[in-house]
Fold this sequence. Notes:
The chain is an alpha/beta fold. The protein has helices at 16-27, 34-42, 46-70, 88-95, 107-114, 117-121, 130-148, 160-170; strands at residues 5-9, 31-33, 77-79, 98-104, 151-154. The protein has a five-stranded parallel β-sheet, sandwiched between helices. The longest helix has 25 residues, at 46-70.
Amino acid sequence: MTGGHLVLVGLMGTGKSTVGRKVARALGRDFVDADSEFEVRQGRSIRDFFERFGEEEFRMIESQVLSDLLSTERPLVVATGGGVVLSETNRNLLRSAGHVVWLRASVETLVKRLSTTRGLAKRPLLDGDVEDRLRTMERDRADLYQSVADATIDVDSRTADAVCELVVASHGGVA
Ligand code: S3P
């Protein structure tokens, strides 16, 4: 059994929040979604924030949120935003956070999952050609997710419950 937090990383649409909530329930821990925490702190949606202040500012505050969450004493389940691994500081924080699981999906799966009004409304970085955006992100980020992950789970043909079970098992079980 690994100590510390259980942290989910991966591209947008891989199910970090849905699975994270289930994993937290299974482990009897609190769940925190870093994007939601960002929105609560800023009092505005991520899209609104991007439009007013831009990505650079977003990344600075995202790092602060990550660092605050990971310094919480009680072990949490944390769903991160897909771009959290872009910063070396964040990657180092993640490496010492506890147990990090990379939820990995093919771009085809992600395009299907995210091409809804709601999926796109929340995600300013997908404006334009969604598939092209996701392919670029996958190319730029796959090695970074790999570099922080203690376990990798392919989510393509799996339900959220099945992924949850695999995450819990990768962590050493529930007890
Ligand atoms: C981002 C992913 C989003 C959110 C922001 C930027 C990214 O989170 O943090 O729109 O750079 O991949 P989700 O992965 O939860 O959609």
